[in-house]
Amino acid sequence: MKAKISQTSSPHFESPSPKATVYRSISACLRCRQKKIKCDQKFPSCSSCLRARAECVGVDPATGREMPRSYVYSLETKVSKLESALKEVGLDPEALYNGRAKLSLSQISTSSVSATGASGAPSSFLGATSGISFARLMFAAVQLRGSDLDMSSVSNFSSSSVPKQSVDETPIYPARLPAKDVAERLLETFFTQANAQLPIIHREEFINNCFKPIYGDLSPDVVLSSTPPPSTPPHIPTPSSTSSVEQSQPLEPNPTALYFLNLVFAIAIAVNHQHYPDRLPEAYHAAAMRHVDTLMNSSDRLEALQAILLLCLYSIMRPAFPGVWYTLGIALRICVDLGLHSESGIRINLFRLDMRRRLFWCTYVVDRQICVYLGRPPGIPDQSIKVPFPSLLDDALITPEGFIQPPVNIAPSYKQVSQAMFVIRRLQSEIQFILYDKGELPRRFSTLEDWKVDMWDRVQRWYASCPKSPSDMSCNFNLSFIDINYHQTRLLMYGICPASPMIPQENNLVINDAGKSIIYIYYRLLHDKSINYTWVAVHNLFMAGTSFLYSIYHSPVVRSQVSVQEIEDASNACMTVLNSLVNKCDAASECRDTFKLLTAAIIQL
Questions:
Q1: Can you give the residue ranges of the Zn(2)-C6 fungal-type domain (predicted)?
Q2: Which residues, including other chains, have CB under 8 Å from residue 219's CB and lie 6 or more apart?
């Protein structure tokens, strides 16, 4: 009967809800509950606990854990202190909460000065050789605060002269193939300035398989990689919004030829990018990418590797998806799949063998350049490489039927440039392994100093053997890029590194001279409108500039030999070049502003 009454009369006899019971048991502190006295439930402590000077403890309704009733109050206090600390270093807490915050200038973002900037490489890891640690050390040394600096101390470089960085939302349409005379001028630029460093393309094979089917024979006055490029680059019409896939190519030649031609044109224009509209290389790149699947699915894997390496070269110069880091990864995998890093037991004709070697060493050069700049481990360790350099013979003497005996007293070929690049990348790779990855010394050296003496001797012999004039390489390659590599190697050897965290005083003079030399080389290149590899230029300038300033700060000897005017001149030159690259590389504006701040701090010392 009772059960029936409780079921049918529950609305009238219903006991207090569990929710209300729990609320009362939680709201009262444990001490008051244990003493069975009324708790006034005040915060952060009830009156009873406060009079007894006892900790007022409650129970978390979600977890059942005991915790001070002042828990929320203590969290609010901590948040308030943290917000005050953020404001002291110049950060807005509200902006952080809303995701709108920007780092203060005393915090260098690895993404802002990464070499990946415009090329789309990831910024997730930057090692010691990237120069980022050098910049951070610089900031720590001067204990920089933006509000403490007199920005007027940097002469002739006002913020009003800095253009705003804008994002161009204009669609990129595939470019039309240029007229024959323009195409030939672009080929001269490509084979003189790009292919001379990285001989990805066999000149005669390219002309026969790609150029002639569309344009016919080369004009009699065009001799690629042996004559100076034209002083004024050819005018190329900018693709308009009326361009279309059908209109771009009135002919339908081999897709392979169209891919290589358009990408070669894109690279040639990027080499002289200061002469052309900003997005013209992208238009030729877009035209090439319409045929990329044909190359990726090619049964000739060496041809596919050529196509990927050209894409890597373009991605170093211009923003491109998915970026040089990932396209380089594909190239490295193909090299390993084909066994290009080792020639044990291989039997093929000389033409094919030489092509394997040149493509492997082109991949190696790009890999070491990117890995040294980003401070990342190389794709293929040097210990695993057992393949000689390719032939120094001119491409005209390397045929599918074999090598042609060169005439007596023939001039050196353009491959003198590429071999110089192969050698310096091997030296830089060893420097990175020993000094920055703290690898094991070769057995013939008993101490690190012995190795450094030998390495510096090898670097000096390399520099002395490099081409010094067009007659040394049968082309008019810009030798400033060899000078840049020489001074970069000096910075790698004598700068701060994990193996030598403290710089001897005598090294600061070398660092100062190398950094200043790189700055002025790029300044001359800007004046001559010859800067290419835009994000590489940003990286090189930032590393050179911070090294230059650090040597001044760190060494009384350097300070005694460098005047304020010299510091201002070199710094203004560096910032001028960075300013010119703002619209080409995302990192340039932040590097410029950071370097400007550092210069002002050094001048105030």
A1: 28-57
A2: 180, 181, 184
Residue 117 has pLDDT above 50, yes or no: no
Q: Is the pTM for the entire model greater than 0.85?
A: no
Alpha helix ranges (H) inside 128-254: 132-142, 180-189, 203-206, 212-215, 245-248
| Separation between Cα atoms, residue 203 and residue 182, nearest integer Å | 18
Beta bridge partners of 398: 403
Sequence-distant (≥ 6) Cβ neighbours of residue 299 within 8 angstroms: none
Instruction: Report how far Cα 374 is from the mean position of its chain's Cα atoms.
Output: 6
Segment 166-179, tens digit of pLDDT: 345 567 788 889 99
Domains defined for the chain, CATH in brackets: 14-69 (4.10.240.10), 180-604 (no CATH)
**Nearest alpha carbon to residue 136 among 109, 116, 111:** 109
Looking at residue 67, the DSSP 8-state letter turns out to be E
CA R_g for the chain: 32
Residue whose structure tokens are 């210990």? 383
| Residue 319 scores a pLDDT above 80 | no
Closest C-alpha to 313, from 362, 272, 258, 375: 362
Tell which wins on pLDDT, 348 or 25.
Answer: 348
Mean pLDDT of the chain: 79
**Helices and strands in the chain: count of H runs, count of E runs:** 26, 4
Q: Is 455 left (phi over 0), alpha (psi -120 to 50) or beta?
A: alpha
Angle between helices 350-374 and 324-338 (to 10 degrees): 140
